Amino acid sequence: MTAETSQTLDRGLRVLKLLADTDHGLTVTELSTKLGVNRTVVYRLLATLEQHALVRRDLGGRARVGLGVLRLGRQVHPLVREAALPALRSLAEDIGATAHLTLVDGTEALAVAVVEPTWTDYHVAYRAGFRHPLDRGAAGRAILAARQSPSADPGYTLTHGELEAGASGAAAPLVGVTGVEGSVGVVMLADAVPDRVGQRVMEAAREVAEALR
Predict the structure, then answer these.
(1) How far apart, in whole angstroms, are the C-alpha atoms of residue 99 and residue 126?
(2) How far apart are CA 165 and CA 44, in angstroms?
(3) 3-state class of 121 per DSSP?
(4) Nearest alpha carbon to residue 179 among 92, 96, 103, 84
(5) Residues 192, 168 contacting (CB under 8 angstroms)
(6) pLDDT confidence of residue 102
(7) Which among 6, 7, 101, 184 could bridge 113 via Cys, Cβ 3.0 to 4.6 Å?
(8) What pLDDT is recorded for position 2?
(9) How far apart are CA 169 and CA 179, in angstroms?
(10) Could you confirm whether the keyword Nucleus appears in this record (predicted)?
C-alpha cells in the first residue's frame, strides 16, 4: 500500500473479488484467513458492503455477491463494446459476415456489439440487444464450452439454423478476461461455415480479450 491509496477500500475490493470467484460464498472466518485480517475487520467490511447491496449474507452466514453489483455491471457494457469494436470491424470486413460480441446476462446470451460488413450485397441482420438461450447458437455454445474446459483452449464452435433458418454461426470464447464472460463470433447466410472462418474468429476473440485486459 502507498500513501495515496486507501487500505479499507483495498480490502473491500478484495472481499468482492474473493466472493466473485466462488459459487458457494465465504464465511467470515474464511474471508479473515484469505485477507490476513481479524474477524472484526471483516464484519465491518461486510456490513458496509451490505449497506450498498454489493454483498448479501445467507441464512447460514455465508457472504455472497449482492444484486447491487448487477447495477454496476450494466454500465460495463458500453466500455466493453467500445474496446471490442476495432476487432469486430476487422472481422466483419475480412469475412464478409456480421460480427458480434456476446456476453452472459443471467441465463441468456446478450449481443452487446454488432458490426455488419460494408461491401457485401447481403448479410444477416443481427442487432445489439438480441438475446437467446446459452445452449442455442454458436455464441452461447462457445461460452458453455469454455465453462466446461476452463484450463484448456476451447477452440471455436459452429452451428447451423439454431437461431435463424438458413444461417450458420461461428464463435470463440473470450479467454483470460477477469469478470467478463463472453464470446466473439460471426453469423452468415450459408449452409456451412468455411474452414478459415473458425480460425479467424478465434483470432478476433484473442484481440478483444487483449483489449479488455
Answers:
(1) 9
(2) 55
(3) coil
(4) 103
(5) yes
(6) 96
(7) 101
(8) 61
(9) 25
(10) no
